[in-house]
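User: Hello, can you help with two protein structures?

Assistant: Certainly.
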Amino acid sequence: MTNSQLLTGQWQKFKAFVVALFSVLQPRSNRLDEVSDHQPVKVLHIITRLIIGGAQETAMLIADYIDDKVWAVDVLSGPQTGSEGSLIEEVRRRGVPLIIEPNLVREVHPLKDFIALVRLTQHIRQNHYTIVHTHSSKAGILGRWAAWLAGTPLIVHTVHGWAHHEQQHPLVRGIYILLEKLTLPITSQLIVVSPRNIEKGVKDRIGQPENYVVIRSGIELDRFGRPQVPPTQMRMALSIPIDAPVVGTVTRLSDQKAPLDFVQAAGIIAQEVPEAWFVMVGDGPLRSEVETLVEKLDLADRLILTGLRRDVPELMATFDLFVLSSLWEGLPRVLPQAMATGLPIVATAVDGNAEAVMDGVNGRLVPPGKPQQLAQTIIELLRNPSLMTSMGQAGREMVDEFGAQRMVEQLAELYKQLLHKKVSDKYPHQFSSNG
């Protein structure tokens, strides 16, 4: 038996199991006949939690920016936030309809996961969504199966960076890959934020290239590079000397982002460039470990941990150089934010980082998990201000492709293409206006 036949058999068994287990939620036929020429198309975005993060901000901006005369977008999230901070109030402030599902949690919890699947299916069915669009791994699996059980015509998932990576135990990694393989057949379209995510997915046999489309994660470009507080004033507030070179990062203090590598690099840089200062914006589960290492390396008088801040554009404007030390990524939004601010970037050469940073053009790429090499690359740039200036300018010139408006326009066009493909010529005038 070939691998393809084995996977097909696994898929058929899994689908039969789901239908049997949730017979009370027998899938309805696709509801394309419910699409009206005179009403916006109903879309539900599902995400596991609304922490301050790239996937969450993407979902929020889509719901906020997309044309509400064509698309009626709701957002559904689990209730958890955490040390990273919450976007729940920000989503509501923007007027985006938000549903909180208490059983949708990040951790594997069989009972809550079962209840969440049932409740998601009921919610999708009762509200007659034409498109369900999921984000993040947990919501991506539960949300897509709920949409299929509810008979949703179009099911879309955005990969903001695969949940499986080389740092995981092989068994855990294999389970994540298997779940994606089993869920792919009910998925109308996979969106990735970087072509490298396609390469990784295909390498792990999660579909073929035609299953994927690239839509970059967009940011509100006009918020960056135009600080509402002058950089000199912000530096004074942070007690940073006006003329000191500042190496900064905006990151989650978690294993993925490797904040301890940044601190290790800062310790090395401080020996070679004693006038340098360092700023880390963000919070997370490794906060105490970061603080301990800062003390150990005697950096407390020159490395500032700001914690969670919403004035990131103003803080970035105080930096001279932006650093991202991640071990794996999708396409981190902080890189285009740094580009829009006009900062040269030093980032690890992982996944989507290399899509935003062209080595030697708008920054430098270094291997992940190598704080010594990270430090030496930063030192080289700090000693060459003219190169830093030219790299920052190059980043500004490259950043337009990462704008939120462009992201939303591409997504609206994809929705229309998928619907036209689904309904063929049945509703030729349904989506004639721009999304």
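That covers the first. Now for the second protein you mentioned:
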Amino acid sequence: MIESAATLFKDQTRYFQGFEKKGLPNRKTERWKFTPVASLYQKEWNPQAAISAGELDEFSDFVSFDSLGELSKSKNCEVKKLKPSEIESFFQQFETTKFWQEDDSLFQWHLSQLDHFYHIKYTGEETLSLTHSLGSGALVNYGIVFEITSPKATVLESFLGTRGQTYHQTSRFFDLKENQDIKHVIVNEATPEQSQQIWTFANLDHDKAQYHGLQVNFGGGLVRSNPFINIQKPHSFGEFNGFYFLTGADHFDFYSQIKHFSGETESNQVVKGLLHDQSKFAFTGNIYISKNSQLVNAAQFNKNLVMSNQAQAFGQPQLEIFADDVKCSHGSTTGQFDIDELFYLNARAISPTKAKRLMAQAYGLELIQMVDNDVLNTYLTGKLTSKLKTAYGESR
């Protein structure tokens, strides 16, 4: 168990004291009741030597991090490690925003253990690719502040797993400008031995800003995604969707908050996936609409396909509405493939295994193809197809 704060910047001691005051969450802690994190914080972690990060040749602009969070390559963008005074100033300002939640002890723990904090300035309009390499035996904590200067851009983050146990915690921060359209995709390929905490903060504090988030999760021992979106100016749109494909004893917990602090705003969220073997998935999504935020249009849906009698899915969509002229909807469904649809395919000489693979592919592509980027669509489709062939085979 880590018993003290890191020494990257002064306020880390205060954040660690905040964590100690609240302690580790347990099943009685509402926002963490589906995430059994205690063992991860009690383990003695021994960081190993860094390993080199992979590259995605489809994309021209790179930022790569090795297994210890050290920057190993950059191209066509400005990347710098922030100085202690700059980090301290950033979080002092962050604590004044509507994102700050003092009762979230694990986020305070993450801040208290930050090893590195980066600022990435991107001026391109194509896809900026970041690779995070998950090494062996390491406890890793780092954060990234994105400054996107172009009116339209895509950020792709890929977590590449290797063998060995790791607890990898990262946070990223977006502050969108007026009329800006940012697409942000996280692809996670952690191994069953690797666990993660992934925090995302998107602030829409200018008119007509659009943030489109998506996490595609293909594995991991215990993975927790925490996307938070604050929509603060009219005619802005925010979404953070999710697709997961879980096997073995994978555990994926998706906890999100989308908050409307202005009228005439929109949000959308669809989180769906497939569970196999003994895997577990939990969705807790909260849409909050503040008083006097009229004419808001918000939707939230969770859909789970359970492919095993031992798999478990939990869905908790939540609405908090304090305005009286809004259009909101939410729901959660859990089930299996439609027997009639499978019979239809079997009757046309398609084997049961291939029928399930085709239906699973259509189920996933429905969400993936919502990403308005041809290159990224091709990349994500290839990843999904590969996972499905591994899980269901290539039988006729």
